[in-house]
Amino acid sequence: MKASRLRFGMNLWPPFLFAGIRVVEISPDYRYARVRMRLRPWNRNFFGTHFGGSLFAMTDPFWVLLLFNQLKGEHVVWDRAGEIEFVAPGRGTVYAEFRLTDDHVAEVLDQTRDGEKALVWFETDVVGQDGAVIARVKKQVYARRKRDKQLAHA
Question: What percent of the chain stands above pLDDT 70?
């Protein structure tokens, strides 16, 4: 699927649409994504700052989507674990960026070469308009070569 089509669909996806989460960019090579969330009455908490669940949700699917597309459908890829550290109250518009490097992809390919699973941690900061860190998110991604792909490479 073209990255532009995925971005369009994700912006209509109810969990993002109703939380005010907007996918600003997914690069055509699936190496980069940028997400934005403006503070709105429907995504603020009791204290008037960004609801923590929305901060986590805005980072949720991207490492899996980027990695899956880099692995050309030859691997099963899904989220295994996640954690978030709230650093400062989120006010105004917040952003998250995801950059998948050659090293990330090589690590997964190396670990899954013989049919083993890879468990790789990725980190993303959610930042305010001024670049100040609002939250630090860690996601552990699981990947394993699909069985029919294992046989083809044996």
Answer: 95
Q: What is the pLDDT of residues 109-138, one digit of tens each?
A: 999 999 999 999 999 999 999 999 999 999
Q: How many CA atoms lie within 13 A of 124 on its CB side?
A: 27
- CA 146 – CA 109 distance, rounded (Å): 12
In total, how many domains does the chain have?
Answer: 1
Residue count of the chain, please give it.
154
CATH number (domain holding residue 48):
3.10.129.10
Q: Tell me the C-alpha distance between 128 and 37, whole Å.
A: 10
**CB-CB contact of 8 with 17 (8 Å):** no
In whole angstroms, give the CA distance from residue 106 to residue 138. 20
For 117, the domain range is: 3-152
Residue-wise DSSP of 9-38: HHHHSHHHHTTTEEEEEE-TTSSEEEEEE-
Question: What pTM, to 2 d.p., does this model score?
Answer: 0.89
Q: Please check whether residue 123 is in contact with residue 59, taking contact to mean a CB–CB distance below 8 angstroms.
A: no
Q: Under a CB-based contact definition with an 8 Å cutoff, are residues 109 and 77 in contact?
A: no
